[in-house]
Amino acid sequence: MHGSDAGYSAAELKDILQVKTKHALTQLVREARLSRESFEAVYVYLSVQKDVARRQLKARKAFLQQSPASLIVANPDLATDEARALLVLFCSMLNEQQRRLYAGLESLKLGHGGDAHIASILGMDPHTVAKGRKELMGADLTATGRLRAPGAGRPSQEKKHRRS
Predict the structure, then answer these.
(1) Count of CB atoms within 10 A of residue 29's CB?
(2) Is residue 162 in some structural domain?
(3) What are the tens digits of pLDDT across the range 30-74?
(4) Which entry of 13, 102, 121, 156 is 20 to 30 Å from 24 by CA?
(5) Range of the domain at 95
């Protein structure tokens, strides 16, 4: 944690490391190998060196004073619940193709790891977000009036009647 600019929350470390970290972090705090501060209703794990920890908290405070929209682009793990709710609300008003393209756009803003992060926020499959991103990058935007290619999607279900 000494090299971190603003410390890390358990969720941030989970996204970076792709493993659950909460119990390990708690153990490191108990062993006095990390310090922990409650910040914006979330525990932030910091260096045990007091001067480094003060610098990390100061950097985190400065970072969170940015607008919610810039937080999502700069560091999605620090996005406020309100900003996430706005993303989900806006996305819920879009049709299937628009949702995919919007998710792809947000993923492009985030860069590496954006597909998975946006997919987790919007409740989409990361492959769908990647497809939207690729469509945007390749300008593969078809204006056929169809949301899906002919024959795509779930097969229709016919009611089965029992013969007596």
Answers:
(1) 16
(2) no
(3) 888 888 887 767 778 888 888 888 888 888 777 666 545 554 555
(4) 121
(5) 70-137
